[in-house]
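Q: How would the structure tokens look for this protein?
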Amino acid sequence: QVQLAESGGGLEQAGDSLRLSCAASGRTFSSYAMAWFRQAPGKERELVAAIGWSPIGTYYIDSVKGRFTISRDNAKNTVFLQMTSLKPEDTAVYYCAAGRRWLPRPPDYWGQGTQVTVSS
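A: Here is the predicted structure in token form.
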């Protein structure tokens, strides 16, 4: 069982940067692929970025490539999503997720979500 808790969401202006964090419980964090999904109002939840276990690989949806960076700290059971050059279309609830498959879609565990709002 893995429990995930996101933090770092907020209200930002277009062009700003924001970092999301996700703290995971459990002793097997490093064996999970970790991911960030997002869901905008009226839209389906989509996989934004994912990071694998060792050897580590990453995945990004096209719309965030070059702007978002996913990383993980296995010693601290934490995964991050660094978001730069934010756009209004990045507005969504962002969910941390963990899974044993690659890509973790669908994942095995979900966090509660954190709201990111980007104003123009």
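The CA atoms of residues 4 and 111 lie 5 Å apart.

The chain has a mean pLDDT of 95.

Upvote if useful.
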